[in-house]
Amino acid sequence: MSKKNIKKFPKQNVEKKRQEKYVLKLFVSGLTLKSQRAIANIKKICHEYLEGRHDLEIIDIYQNPIFAKDGHIIAAPTLIKEFPGPLRKFIGDMSNTEKILGGLDLISKEKNKTLENENRKENITGTLKENEKLRLRLNEVEEALNAIRKGKVDALVVSGHKGEKVFTFKGADYAYRVLIETMNEGASTLTPEGTVMYCNKRLSEMLMIPIKKIIGHSIKEFIQPQNISIYDSIISQGLRGSSSGEITFRRRDGTILSANISCSPLKIDKVGICMVITDLTLKKREELVINTQREELLHVTRVGKLAEFVSSLAHEIRQPLTAILSYAQSAQRMLVGREPKLREILKYIINDDQRAANVIHQLRSLLKKSATEMKLIDINVLINETVVLIDTDATIRKNVLKMNLKSNLPFVRGDRIQLQQVLLNLISNSFDALESSKGAREILIRTLRKDTGMIIVEVKDSGCGIPKRNIPKLFTRFFTSKPDGLGMGLSISRSIIESHGGRLDVKNNANSGTTFYFTIPIGTKET
Amino acid sequence: MNNTKPLIYVVDDNVSICRALTLLLKSHGFKVETFTRASDFLAYKHPNLPSCLILDIRLPDINGLVLQDTMVSRKLNIPIIFITGHGDIPMSVQGMKAGAIDFLPKPFTEKKLLNAITLAISKNIAQIKVHAEISKIKRRARTLSPRELEVFRLVAKGMLSKQIAYKRGISLQTIKIHRGRVMKKMKAENVTELIHFAQKAGITSSKE
To answer: Is A324 close to B83, i.e. CB distance below 8 A?
Structure first.
């Protein structure tokens, strides 16, 4: 250690002018941590400056409110107002030695009031001088403390009654201090009730709150309310042995800090808790990314399997469809000029066969992009045709399908099968939403015209609704709330509607359930 | 040939499709033969009739495209209409490049099938016609003497009688006699037709 880094403290030589015994009464409002610190501070100061020539009585005004009337030092500003008197002064910040000293200046000698009055003038000059000295010393102490704090001091020599004593910071103790102050984890000591007694710089950074505003506050103020019970259980364990767990803190800006806290008992003076707080934000983010990727992979595999399955299924269905079509068409030829009713039936068979073939074709085109067939479509007719497809399903599930279709709507331009697919998806989603519904099981399909050259189609259900947090994810691929869902339906539906120049969106109804709605441009003859 | 009913072969492993197509095609006045295996089709003795083949691209024994190749190597000139239940586009491209008439995804309508068949049959009739003509030319060419055949080749190459005489060191008179015999034996009305025959039967390209 270099010489210039050594600070010398002068030996205490406060003038012992007054030999009278001081009777001090300190009124505190409740034995809080703050007041306890103040008491300790005052005790220390009294001891140092009055050297035992005092009698300090501490009165908790919450327990003994009556004493407030005849006290001399009152640290509680509300009581000063309530019970005014000449000898009362609000000292203010009890941790500030200077202020306390200013307060001590007003200490009266209870037993020698008159003497005090006589000596007042003399005393004041003396006290002022004394004050000046003390101030200088304080400045020196503060300077030294700052130097220590900034690491500019390697050792401290303190001159006392029993000679000089050297304190070094480069010892084991110093290393711990530096470690705790500079480590990348938040560290704090707490009272069993959770009041912060100490907090390192890192914790303050993590919470984005200045150290001053953490110390003396309850740590619970910084914890997400729903996590308090988790915190309590960690602490109660931590008082007995060590414990740890994950909780979320709330930063000053309202954002959330996921952290792991590990607690162990701290046995200095009274029982407290030592807590290390580890920021989990990065870890959480990584976990999320990995989980998302894993999920996506799983889904891609599933979709790949699905594509394969659909492909072979399509083939299997196409075989009988081909046969049916050819049978029906040969039967039609055989009946040329006869049996008009039978021929009509054959026509229906042929139409439905081709519809089924189209569905399969579109099913495949979902998995393999192919050209769409844009035609002018009466949307109301399309809705009616679609509803027919699932009417039986609705009846089985005890759902009521209602329609409120605006008449004389202009045609839209679109791909019949694709739009039907969107409608089917929305209606079957509504069915699922109504599954657990105890109230009305109703689906309302509505069409209306928007003045912007669009037609709106709404599918409204009285089901369970969608949690708000799920709404933004709803149309993303692979998002599903159903255990057996693929999370493709709404994503496909949205891209279909968007490829038609419209928009598909959702809103929760005011009373119950959800409304999915899409817009689709009115078609023109051209193009 | 015009009054004979064209013969449609159907090769599909699905019995129901075979049956249905038989009914449909017979109602349109075609003769129909169905096979569920490609090998059965190859083993069949194909009558000399205008015909076409409706072929499923995926068969249990051999792939439809392989059958197409086999038919080419066996000089089995029957136009093919591929049908498939899998929208295999790469396969269809391959099939079309190898000379298929059409590629119909299942299920196909009567109209589409008939359009394809009409096209295939007319192509097959033309093929048969060409084939018959070639064999007729070849038959006639076989009656030529070696010298006559040589003269035929050189004429078909566009050489004048004088050039041939000079090249072969034979008198012009002799060449003219040979040429006259060739014209007669080949039943060609003029030199242009003779050259045409040679091209059709691929006679120019041999030797030299």
So the answer is: no
